Amino acid sequence: MKKNIFFFCAIALLSLSSFGMNVECEYANSNMGYAKTQINAALLTQDINQARFYAYRAISALEKSKNQLNVCGCKKAKKSMLENMEVLTLATKSTTLEGTITYLSKSISLTNNTISVLESHDTHESTYANDALSINTSAKAEKTTTKTKSKTKKKDLFETIDTSLEKYRISLDKVVQSVNCKDATAFATRIFDECEAQLLKPDISEGSKYYNLRTKEITQEALNKIGNCSSKK
Q: Which residues contact 145 (CB under 8 A, 6 or more apart)?
């Protein structure tokens, strides 16, 4: 009987670990998106000091993603990100704008690769999943149960946040449909930027982090629906 309970808990832990891993991958991907914005801004400037400034901001965002990628367990994404940080560091040390732009162009390619890899994170190896699969059958079921309860509590929190954000999704859809294109874009962009800023904070709570991640995703969907205002009458 105890053995059956243990195996049930192990399977539950594996499932919930995968859930936690996916969320951490999404947090990391959000930071990649912010870094990409900064790198693009650096590529558009004709001032080497401004380019360096944006490159430093991109490096800071990637630095904050290290632990998230460790939890995520996506080795390919982490390898790509670490290479990207080295390239961005070289961009800040280049003595010419041309050299800086060359490194930034390579950085954009690496950033896109990291994002692409993270978007398919379900197919990648998870550190948590491996740990759950390699649990020794002689381990105490009580310890596994405690971990499972903790992850279940987190999952319940996230599901509650998802439910509450449906009202925001509906309200934002109404804004997109009824408000002037430029005003709707400005409104949604302010929310999107604020979510990105919150996600980069090191001391943000798990609930707030997930709330801002999902809010950012919903807002991005709205911005995609709005599209390019210049092409609309």
A: 5, 9
For the question of whether the overall pTM of this predicted structure is more than 0.70, the answer is no
- Transcribe the chain into DSSP letters: -HHHHHHHHHHHHHHHHHHHHHHHHHHHHHHHHHHHHHHHHHHH-S-HHHHHHHHHHHHHHHHTTHHHHHHHT-HHHHHHHHHHHHHHHHHHH-SSHHHHHHHHHHHHHHHHHHHHHHHTGGGS--HHHHHHHT--TTS-HHHHHHHHHHHHHHHHHHHHHHHHHHHHHHHHHHHHHHS-HHHHHHHHHHHHHHHHHHHT-TT--HHHHHHHHHHHHHHHHHHHHH--GGG--
Which amino acid is it at 137?
T
Q: Which residues contact 210 (CB under 8 A, 6 or more apart)?
A: 23, 157, 158, 161
pLDDT beyond 90 at 71 = no
CATH number for the domain whose boundaries are 2-123: 1.20.120.660
